[in-house]
Amino acid sequence: MPLEDCDADVDLAVSLAYGSIKLAAPIYFGDMSFGALSGIPNIALAKAADLTETLAGTGEGGLHPEVRKCKRITVQWASARFGVDLSTLSAGMAVVIKIGQGAKPGIGGHLPSTKVTDIISATRKIPVGTHALSPAPHHDIYSIEDLEQRIWALKEATGKPVFVKVGATNYVAYVACGIARMGADGMILDGFGAGTGASPLVVKDNVGLPIEVALPVVDEALRRECLRDGFSVIAGGRVSCSADAAKLILLGADAVVLGTAALIAMGCIACGMCHTGKCPALLTNAAAYTTHETLSLDWATSRLVNFVKGFSEGLKILVSGLGFKSVKDIVGRKDLLKFNEALTYSKKGVGY
C-alpha cells in the first residue's frame, strides 16, 4: 500500500497491568541501570518516557536523583537489592521483579568494579571499586509460592502493579502461567540477543531463545489457561524498528522493549566497550559527580523523543496497512503473519 493511502489515524494507545497503566504507544524503554549507563542517559530515557507518555525501565541498583523525579518509570527489585528501599520502590508506576534477562538467562547481574565510582557507591551502598555482583536466584524465592508472597508483599507495600521479568528459555510458557496465577499484573519476556552491559560472551551468544520463538508459545498458553485478559506481556530482544514491533505484537505482545535501539538513538556506535567505563559516545562511561565530558541531556532527550515519534508513525502505517484502526486489535493475530517453517517454534522443543 502506498504511504499516501495509509490512514494515519491509528490509535496506538494501550493499557497495561489490568488497565492501571496507560501508554500513548506500546513502547517500554529497556531496564538499564544507573551504573551500566552514566547518568545522563538514564535521565534522558525517563524524561523521554514522560514526554511521549510511554514507560521507562530503570534497571537494578537504585535511582539517579533526577530519574526519581520522573513519573513514567518502573523500579526494579533484583536479587541483590542494591540501593532499594520502600521509597525507591514506590517512586515509579510499577515494580519489576527481575528473575532473569534475555542476554544471560540463569546468571545474575554484574557491574564491573571500574564502573563502581563514588556516586554509584553511594547509590548502591557498596564500596568504591568493587564488583557489584547480583546472585542468580533471589534467595527468598525458591518456589512459585515464594514468588506469590513477594508479589503481594510488594503490591501491599507500594500500592503499585507488579511485573515479573524473565529470560526466554525452554518451557517459559509454564513460567508465564505461574506468574499470572500468582497475582502479577504482567511480565517482561526478554529474548535471546537482548542488550547487556556486561555478560560472558559464551552465555550471550549461546543461551536463551529468540523472542519470536518464545512469545507465541507464552501468549497461547496464557489464553488457553484463561489468564490473558488484563495480564500484560511486554516483549523484547533485538527490537530495532517498527516492523519488529508489529511482528511481536502480532505474536502476542502488548508492548515492546526498546533498549539498544534507544541507545543508538542517543549516539551509540556499538563498539562493544560498555563494560570498560570508557564509552566514546558517553553513554556507558563510568558515572561521576562531576566530569568535564558529559552527554547533553537536552540533545539526548530530543533524540529519543524523535525516535519514538518516527517509530510510532511507522507502526501506525503497518497497523493501517493490515486494515485496523487500533494497535490493540492486532495483539496475538498470528494468522496475519507468514511463518518460516524452518523456524516454527513447535520444532524447537518449546511447545506447550
Automatic annotation (TrEMBL):
Belongs to the glutamate synthase family. It holds the Pfam family Glu_synthase. Keywords: Oxidoreductase. CDD domains: GltS_FMN (cd02808). Gene3D superfamilies: Aldolase class I. It comes from the Archaea. One of its GO terms (biological process) is glutamate biosynthetic process. InterPro entries: Aldolase_TIM, GltB, GltB_archl_type, Glu_synthdom. This is Glutamate synthase domain-containing protein. The keyword Cytoplasm does not apply. Residues 20-324 form the Glutamate synthase domain. The keyword Oxidoreductase applies. One of its GO terms (molecular function) is glutamate synthase activity. It comes from Candidatus Terraquivivens tikiterensis.
